[in-house]
């Protein structure tokens, strides 16, 4: 078992419950590398995965055609290899959670990227704040499933394999860069001991479970993603927030995941965490065996490491009590209830993030005429763009254009799936 290095500044005081920033979906991009530049959209200039990151951020990010503050698509790079069929930069591979889809060959021309965004990355339904928009504006921001058939021939629905993701973004923060590879090796070792096949690509890592690459992030990473019975996929990923809680781990359990090694009543049944993603923080190599046993095999959440979770519908999941105690003897790890916590440091951090984003957008609105804003943000109301006060922008309450973008910076909500 790898030894946890000493001297790392890890926050062991804060309650982890609720420190996951809620998101609608996570797009996990296959790069075949184990480290990336601090900003992933500045990396991979001559690689298909780099084109994919920049193209989608241009569409979904601030100022993009499909920018929606209520549809947070978390884009992260991963060490999984792009599909072997790719021989140039015209395509890229990615996974989409919690819808559990694998796209081995996403075309990268601008038209295809926009179609992919509309088909999979936009929300199925809009936040009530968008009720002020016209029907045509709402349609622009809403997912269009009729566009999905053009991608389905190559798309794989993930049914069998648990996916373990570990932040190892050393160029963003040294703590994750040190702890991530240690956890990757230990997860591979423990999962193999439990009978899973965990394939490692060649080029430095061999089949010993260690991280691959040359120290600069180049190398074969974690092998190509595969969904199969008895297969587990373990990879390093780029920044997901919370470096002070390293090691940070996300576990996605497929919708058909069944309980193993539980009670007679549990054994073989579909686990309560099937189809969900669970975030853990402050994970050390010595914790891995317990996490595999309790979460991967038995579908139970370990409260002391739990940062949050996501249901298959995209709703955020948190424990019902600040202490992290769900308090249900019947189903202590699978029962999710609404949880409201008005003022904590995570909410303040998220509020500050929204403050920065909305302050920037608010000042842009103040400095730009209505016609230009309609061209850049056609989903916004068609009047009073310059009418946003500086005070509103500075407050960061996201009250941009009659409340189209507003943010409740003191509320964390977990919903019953």
Automatic annotation (TrEMBL):
It holds the Pfam family Suc_Fer-like. Coiled coil: none annotated. CDD domains: TRX_Fd_Sucrase. Belongs to the AIM32 family. PANTHER family: ACTIN PATCHES DISTAL PROTEIN 1, ALTERED INHERITANCE OF MITOCHONDRIA PROTEIN 32. This is Altered inheritance of mitochondria protein 32. It comes from Paracoccidioides brasiliensis.
